[in-house]
């Protein structure tokens, strides 16, 4: 199977409610979609959101990287020797690379007649995701948590705002609302310093409020601070913005800066980088979470297949972005139903069509 051409399109899906973190506010999913065409009529799909606040890339830079750097050597190439093809591609824009890798792995799995996870060494099944509760007033977050319970979620990730006293109130309200019916993750998105993170966890522990992990409490580059935090608290610390690629993962592991690594395809530059990070974590005795950006079901489905390929080390799944949207325009493939993610057993990502594509 050879790639004969490509098309680019925008995909926009409104959110159920405004998504707010310590870094940004967003009201819709807005993905660039890459459609790879082949000589046998099969189609490979990949996608990438703009994540300027995180990776520094917007849609214009993603399109430029694809059209000028990444796609020219791919058009005309076969997918039967994918590792060699990927090794020949330039680095740089991780969003663009992720979109391309997902589409290429989709085609490679179709070529073998296998679901993507099986091509990667796993097996299709059902995963269960946490649901993110956007940072808001304490009462509003509690209401969102109750609504999540009614939808069947048993694990919630609470976004923090970086004001320790207010964050304590947020967690208190949610803990009362869920009354032990859901486990809690906390995600600070780099908004704390060492003393603030220690204070917050100490207050929660003193009140008997259990949290399973604290995600990226300190700035991404403060690995020494993250390591000192781990020494002072019992709650597992997870690195997110500190880990983009395998080189970052090696630095975090060497510094003792995390108990858990959060892998996202857009950060790692796609499937190959994500698998490499998972394998590094396994070798170091760490576990991983498979996460996602605020993006469509295309990239999130690919992330779910990666998680299913490394279940021993990727023990937590936070792939809720399609569930934050008002609908899913992707027909066929992986299905997202409340907390359950049912991986397709059809070849590749199993995508039959995508509604609402606005071709460029």
TrEMBL record:
<dbReference type="GO" id="GO:0009063">
    <property type="term" value="P:amino acid catabolic process"/>
</dbReference>
<dbReference type="InterPro" id="IPR029065">
    <property type="entry name" value="Enolase_C-like"/>
</dbReference>
<dbReference type="InterPro" id="IPR018110">
    <property type="entry name" value="Mandel_Rmase/mucon_lact_enz_CS"/>
</dbReference>
<dbReference type="InterPro" id="IPR036849">
    <property type="entry name" value="Enolase-like_C_sf"/>
</dbReference>
<keyword id="KW-0413">Isomerase</keyword>
<dbReference type="InterPro" id="IPR013341">
    <property type="entry name" value="Mandelate_racemase_N_dom"/>
</dbReference>
<comment type="similarity">
    <text>Belongs to the mandelate racemase/muconate lactonizing enzyme family.</text>
</comment>
<dbReference type="InterPro" id="IPR013342">
    <property type="entry name" value="Mandelate_racemase_C"/>
</dbReference>
<feature type="binding site">
    <location>
        <position position="240"/>
    </location>
    <ligand>
        <name>Mg(2+)</name>
    </ligand>
</feature>
<feature type="binding site">
    <location>
        <position position="294"/>
    </location>
    <ligand>
        <name>substrate</name>
    </ligand>
</feature>
<dbReference type="GO" id="GO:0046872">
    <property type="term" value="F:metal ion binding"/>
</dbReference>
<dbReference type="InterPro" id="IPR029017">
    <property type="entry name" value="Enolase-like_N"/>
</dbReference>
<dbReference type="Pfam" id="PF13378">
    <property type="entry name" value="MR_MLE_C"/>
</dbReference>
<keyword id="KW-0479">Metal-binding</keyword>
<feature type="binding site">
    <location>
        <position position="24"/>
    </location>
    <ligand>
        <name>substrate</name>
    </ligand>
</feature>
<feature type="binding site">
    <location>
        <position position="318"/>
    </location>
    <ligand>
        <name>substrate</name>
    </ligand>
</feature>
<dbReference type="InterPro" id="IPR034603">
    <property type="entry name" value="Dipeptide_epimerase"/>
</dbReference>
<protein>
    <recommendedName>
        <fullName>Dipeptide epimerase</fullName>
        <ecNumber>5.1.1.-</ecNumber>
    </recommendedName>
</protein>
<feature type="active site" description="Proton acceptor; specific for (R)-substrate epimerization">
    <location>
        <position position="159"/>
    </location>
</feature>
<dbReference type="GO" id="GO:0006518">
    <property type="term" value="P:peptide metabolic process"/>
</dbReference>
<feature type="binding site">
    <location>
        <position position="132"/>
    </location>
    <ligand>
        <name>substrate</name>
    </ligand>
</feature>
<keyword id="KW-0460">Magnesium</keyword>
<feature type="binding site">
    <location>
        <position position="215"/>
    </location>
    <ligand>
        <name>Mg(2+)</name>
    </ligand>
</feature>
<feature type="active site" description="Proton acceptor; specific for (S)-substrate epimerization">
    <location>
        <position position="264"/>
    </location>
</feature>
<feature type="binding site">
    <location>
        <position position="187"/>
    </location>
    <ligand>
        <name>Mg(2+)</name>
    </ligand>
</feature>
<feature type="domain" description="Mandelate racemase/muconate lactonizing enzyme C-terminal">
    <location>
        <begin position="138"/>
        <end position="236"/>
    </location>
</feature>
<feature type="binding site">
    <location>
        <position position="292"/>
    </location>
    <ligand>
        <name>substrate</name>
    </ligand>
</feature>
<feature type="binding site">
    <location>
        <position position="157"/>
    </location>
    <ligand>
        <name>substrate</name>
    </ligand>
</feature>
<dbReference type="GO" id="GO:0016855">
    <property type="term" value="F:racemase and epimerase activity, acting on amino acids and derivatives"/>
</dbReference>
<dbReference type="Pfam" id="PF02746">
    <property type="entry name" value="MR_MLE_N"/>
</dbReference>
<feature type="binding site">
    <location>
        <position position="320"/>
    </location>
    <ligand>
        <name>substrate</name>
    </ligand>
</feature>
């Amino acid at each position: 199977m050879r790639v004969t051409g490509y098309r680019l399109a925008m995909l926009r899906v409104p959110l159920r409610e405004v998504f707010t973190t310590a870094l940004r506010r967003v009201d819709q999913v807005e993905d660039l979609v890459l459609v790879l065409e082949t000589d046998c009529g099969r189609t490979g799909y990949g996608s990438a959101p703009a994540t300027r606040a995180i990776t520094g890339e917007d849609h214009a830079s993603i399109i430029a990287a694809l059209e000028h750097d990444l796609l020219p050597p791919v058009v005309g190439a076969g997918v039967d020797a994918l590792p060699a093809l990927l090794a020949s591609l330039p680095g740089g824009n991780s969003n663009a690379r992720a979109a391309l890798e997902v589409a290429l792995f989709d085609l490679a799995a179709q070529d073998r007649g296998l679901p993507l996870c099986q091509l990667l060494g796993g097996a299709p099944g059902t995963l269960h995701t946490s649901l993110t509760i956007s940072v808001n007033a304490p009462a509003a977050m509690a209401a969102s948590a109750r609504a999540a319970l009614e939808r069947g979620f048993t694990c919630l990730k609470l976004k923090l705002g970086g004001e320790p006293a207010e964050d304590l109130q947020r967690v208190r309200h949610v803990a009362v609302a869920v009354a032990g019916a859901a486990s809690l993750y906390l995600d600070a998105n780099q908004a704390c310093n060492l003393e603030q993170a220690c204070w917050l966890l100490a207050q929660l522990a003193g009140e008997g409020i259990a949290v399973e992990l604290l995600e990226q409490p300190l700035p991404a580059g403060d690995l020494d601070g993250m390591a000192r935090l781990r020494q002072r608290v019992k709650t597992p610390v997870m690195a997110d913005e500190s880990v983009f690629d395998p080189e970052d993962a090696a630095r975090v592991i060497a510094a003792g800066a995390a108990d858990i690594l959060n892998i996202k395809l857009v950060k790692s530059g796609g499937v190959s980088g994500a698998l490499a990070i998972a394998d590094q974590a396994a070798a170091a005795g760490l576990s991983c979470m498979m996460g996602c950006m605020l993006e469509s079901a295309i990239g999130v489905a690919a992330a779910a297949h990666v998680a299913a390929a490394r279940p021993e080390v990727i023990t937590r799944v936070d792939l809720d972005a399609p569930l934050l949207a008002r609908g899913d325009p992707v027909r066929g493939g992986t299905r997202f139903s409340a907390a359950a993610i049912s991986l397709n057993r059809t070849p590749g990502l199993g995508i039959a069509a995508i509604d609402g594509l606005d071709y460029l």
